[in-house]
Amino acid sequence: MANGDLAVRPQPCVLGSVKANVGHLDAAAGVTGLIKTALILHRGVIPPQINFDEPNPRLELKRGAFALSASGIAVGRGGQHHGARG
Predict the structure, then answer these.
(1) What are the pLDDT digits (tens) for 29-53?
(2) Could you tell me whether strands 66-68 and 81-82 are parallel, antiparallel, or unpaired per DSSP bridges?
(3) Phi, psi at residue 37, to the nearest 5°?
(4) How far apart are CA 23 and CA 9, in angstroms?
């Protein structure tokens, strides 16, 4: 998909990291991402990114396709979420 195609999505793809919460994991990095995804689906909330206040303005998150979670974002059935766009 071209970047222009992503901008027309009804909601952004929320980006996050486990590393900020638990540190460098090397071999366990993949499984922690899988566990985080399973917990998001189970609990229905994308957790906030720890130690995150504002995105770098050069990321241009307000333009469309991506967002970061400064506070928890509720996820409904079918993966639809309701929260800030960056």
Answers:
(1) 788 888 888 999 999 999 888 888 8
(2) unpaired
(3) -65, -45
(4) 32
Q: Which domain holds residue 68?
A: 3-82
When divided into structural domains, the chain yields a total of 1
- Statement: residue 65 has pLDDT above 60: yes
Report the CATH number at residue 77: 3.40.47.10
Q: What are phi and psi of 28, to 5 degrees?
A: -90, 5
| Long-range pairs of 21-30 with CB within 8 A, sequence gap ≥ 24 | 21/50
Over the stretch 66-76, which tens digit does the pLDDT of each residue have?
Answer: 888 888 888 87
Q: Residue 23 region, left (φ>0) first, then alpha (ψ -120 to 50), else beta?
A: left
Helices (runs of H) and strands (runs of E) counted in the chain: 3, 5
The 8-class DSSP code of residue 12 comes to P
Q: Which two tokens stand for residue 30?
A: 């993949």
